[in-house]
Design goal:
Largest sheet: 9 strands, mixed
Structural class: alpha+beta
Strand content: 25-35%
């Protein structure tokens, strides 16, 4: 609205338009007055709290007083413009020469005595200070926008500055309205900062009219022999006024409000009592509290994710947990190998020696000290021999493993490599094939072995496949593999293949 009105000022505007500025001016003044009264009420609250609790209030009271001083110090130049337009008896509330376009020029832009640059610098400094004192992005953005001194690019390109953009050839009524808007924006920014400062102290009684007592335990499940620890506090805690604490009906002195006791027996227990404090009127306020907790025997759970034993030289996945204890507070170690954490409650166990048990020890640090929760032993065995298979695709193009039996000749001729793995539905442990043989039988029944090309079928083997007739058999034998444990082994059981 203001920009549209200003754009019309270069024209010979009517009295109705100039009177419109007076209407806007009165509205802005009412809004500014209401904001001023609200801000003054907050300053009064700061003064009351400063007397009641200076230790807690002083830092924020001093900042509020600084805000008031800088807000009141911004120049009020409306009177100067009206006097320039109407003479020394000019009245801001009743401007006679509303259309006077020289008054604002003389007060704000006159060489050597114009106050425009001074006002610009004051607005910039005030905006920066207020933006730094509010907390939220919304507040910062609103204040920066309201008190912006940016000007349109086309105006800047003409070499004009902010004060010229705002006041050059501006009727007195419009200039006064612009300054009223600036006053309104200043009081808004002042209020936003005051409300931010108020949040840092307990200014209004409503902030503490719903006081409740709370027990905050470190853990509600306690292992026998360990400590039960809990903070007993009054909701909205005030570090400058510590409440009296009663366990049962006996007053206790607690360091940092921390209650502790050794738990020697298992079962369900209740910590009960009450707190007493003094409110703003000097009256005693009592709040009861009650907290249940459970003491249990030391226990832990350790399970091998895939089997009831561990394989030497292999990354065995392990899950470890302790009932009632966060996974972040559980630690574990292992003999005969290494135990590496890979996630919350998840570990990789890699035993070293075959035939020697691996023992996993579980430790809890839930209460700030280490406590052993159990030990678990696993037998360590050598990885079993894998099963060889021909790598191929099924009729739908999906990878599949052929482990023996009837095989269509076209699929056999299209196969390229031999693989090996422990693949029993639970484990899927791949082995690297080093070499193998295919054994064919000629018409005289003589065995004809042909050696592979590493893990791949050799050219001679594939040429033989092409010559096989239906129902002919051959065997894949002497498969040499290396497992993840680094051991080399030759598989004893041959794979039989029947051409279909």
């Amino acid at each position: 609205m203001y920009v549209v009105l200003m754009a019309m000022l270069a024209l010979n505007v009517s009295n109705e338009v100039l009177n419109g500025f007076s209407i806007v001016e009165k509205s802005l003044n009412r809004t500014t007055q209401n904001s001023t009264l609200e801000n003054l009420a907050l300053y009064d609250e700061f003064a009351v709290q400063m007397k009641a609790n200076p230790q807690k209030t002083k830092e924020w009271y001093d900042k509020a007083q600084a805000v008031k001083k800088v807000s009141d110090s911004l120049y009020n130049l409306k009177e100067a413009i009206v006097i320039e337009a109407d003479g020394k008896n000019g009245d801001v509330r009743n401007i006679r020469n509303k259309e006077d376009m020289e008054a604002a020029n003389q007060v704000m832009l006159a060489p050597g005595r114009g106050r425009g640059q001074e006002l610009h610098d004051a607005v910039v400094a005030y905006r920066r200070q207020m933006v730094d004192m509010v907390g939220t992005y919304r507040q910062k953005k609103m204040i920066a926008s309201n008190l912006s001194t940016d000007i349109p690019e086309d105006i800047s390109a003409m070499g004009k500055n902010w004060q010229e953009y705002m006041f050059e050839s501006m009727p007195a009524a419009a200039a006064v309205t612009l300054l009223s808007k600036l006053q309104n924006d200043v009081r808004y920014a002042e209020g936003e900062v005051l409300h931010t400062l108020v949040q840092n102290i307990d200014v209004k009684d409503i902030r503490v009219n719903a006081l409740e007592a709370f027990v905050i335990p470190n853990s509600q499940t306690i292992v026998r022999g360990d400590k039960f620890s809990a903070h007993i506090v009054m909701a909205a805690v005030d570090t400058t006024q510590v409440p009296d604490i009663y366990i049962g009906n006996q007053k206790v002195e607690l360091k940092d409000n921390l209650y502790e006791r050794i738990c020697g027996t298992t079962g369900d227990f209740t910590l009960a009592g009450y707190l007493e404090t003094v409110n703003g009127n000097g009256e005693k306020v009592r709040r009861d509290f009650s907290q249940k907790y459970t003491v249990v025997d030391p226990s832990a759970t350790v399970s091998a994710d895939l089997m009831n034993m561990l394989y030497a030289g292999y990354n065995n996945p392990i899950s470890i947990s302790v009932p009632g204890v966060p996974l972040s507070k559980v630690q574990a170690t292992m003999t005969n190998g290494t135990l590496q954490p890979v996630g919350p409650g998840k570990y990789i166990a890699r035993p070293s020696k075959i035939g020697e048990n691996a023992t996993i020890t579980v430790i809890s640090t839930n209460t700030g000290r280490t406590q052993q929760m159990g030990q678990f032993s696993f037998r360590v065995r050598r990885l079993p021999d894998p099963t060889p298979y021909i790598t191929m695709n099924d009729e739908h193009g999906n990878p599949t493993r052929f482990k023996g039996g009837g095989l269509v000749k076209g699929q056999l001729v299209g196969a390229n490599t031999l693989g090996a793995a422990i693949d029993d539905g639970i484990l899927d442990i791949a082995f690297k094939v080093q070499s193998f043989e295919t054994v064919f039988f000629d018409n005289m029944g003589n065995a004809v072995p042909i050696v592979s090309d590493g893990a791949s079928f050799s050219g001679r083997q594939k040429e033989t496949f092409r010559k096989l007739t239906r129902n002919r058999r051959f065997y894949i034998s002497r498969v040499t593999v290396v497992g993840p444990d680094g051991l080399t082994r030759t598989l004893q059981n041959p794979m039989e293949v029947i051409v279909k």
